[in-house]
Amino acid sequence: MPRIESDCIFCKIVAGQIPATVVYRNEHVMAFRDVNPTAPTHVLIIPIEHIPSLSHLSPTDETIAGHILLAARTVAEITGVLESGYRLVFNNGPDALQSVGHIHAHLIGGKSMGWPPFPGASVHHG
Length: 126
Ligand code: AMP
Ligand code: ZN
Description:
This protein is of the alpha+beta class. It has one domain: HIT family, subunit A, CATH 3.30.428.10. Helices cover 18% and strands 20% of the residues. The chain contains two helices and five strands. Strands 1-2-3-5-4 form a five-stranded antiparallel beta sheet, with helices on one face. The longest helix has 17 residues, at 62-78. The termini are far apart. 25% of the residues are buried. The site of zinc ion has 6 residues, from helix 1. Zinc ion (ZN) is lined by residues 5, 8, 10-11, 50, 102.
């Protein structure tokens, strides 16, 4: 049985209950524009099934995990950033400020970015 969470905003987008600007979809994943873009290209790539975070992936999710990365490449091509470059970001858990509990890759591009991706980066390993 596919995993679905009725309270999840991204499951509602998958079900068509909340509108989204869909960029790409196949049987495993869906990609849509972030409602609050941080760059000219900002697309979220999610598994169709509800998986709360990367930490919840299990070995049986190998196919889904692979499809997220393959879809990122496809979305980069569709949105025209394949050559110019793009960043794929998974915010996972509280320290990373994950705000939606359904795995999503942020595909960000269309502008030159900085590194590290946050201010005050420490040189100490934690
Ligand atoms: P994160 O903070 O990594 O969990 O990212 C969640 C992202 O989902 C944020 O960038 C939000 O702007 C985005 N978001 C939240 N609700 C929607 C929505 N209904 N449609 C598109 N993007 C959304
Ligand atoms: Zn969900």
